[in-house]
Amino acid sequence: MSALVSQATVELEYQEASEYGASYGWEFSPLDAEKQLFTVQLVSSVDQERYWFEFRYDDYPEKPYLIEPFYPPTGERGTLVCFPKGPDTFFHPSGFICHPCSRRAYANHGEWAMSNWRLLAGGMNKLRYILDTFYHRINNQPYYHGRMAKHAAR
To answer: Is 70 among the domain residues?
Structure first.
């Protein structure tokens, strides 16, 4: 996939998601066209915990985003402190988002074909819908039980 196609596609999705998420307080970093990445911060209304997600979009939309949860206060990436805890493995304790919308999940699901990711992802096949799902999971007590691991005092 051409970097120009990826950039143009993400620019449209980014604009739509940032406009939609403004009322929820979603905070977006600027798009980094050179590195083909951006970050988004979401806040849980349940406990005011902040969650950060990095989205790499090389080869998007041919391949899904590479989504990496991270925790800026300690610099941790993909560790339990970076993830919300829920009753299922959507936010997987092995350090990835277990859904076809996330490129990292494919290493753990040989039965999934990345070339078919949009169909596999169902309603989570664009940035706005991915973030909406993350946001509503961390703001819905049946799906949110705090962080997977405690963080150091700030």
So the answer is: yes
Q: What total of structural domains would you count in the chain? A: 1
Structural domain harbouring 126: 3-143
Question: Quick check: 14 and 131 in contact, CB under 8 A?
Answer: no
- Which pair of structure tokens corresponds to residue 8? 């143009």
Q: Does residue 154 form part of some domain?
A: no
- Name the β-bridge partners of 66: 56
One-letter amino acid at 25 equals G
Distance from C-alpha of 65 to C-alpha of 150, rounded to nearest angstrom: 27
Burial of 25 (0-12, 13-18, 19+ CB in 10 A): exposed
Dihedral in degrees, nearest 10, Cα atoms 135, 61, 103, 27: -30
CATH number, residue 38: 3.10.110.10
Cα torsion angle, 142, 90, 86, 56, sign: negative
Summarised one tens digit per residue, pLDDT across range 5-34 is 999 999 999 999 999 999 999 999 999 999
The structure tokens listed for 83 are: 């993830």
Residue 154 has pLDDT above 70, yes or no: no
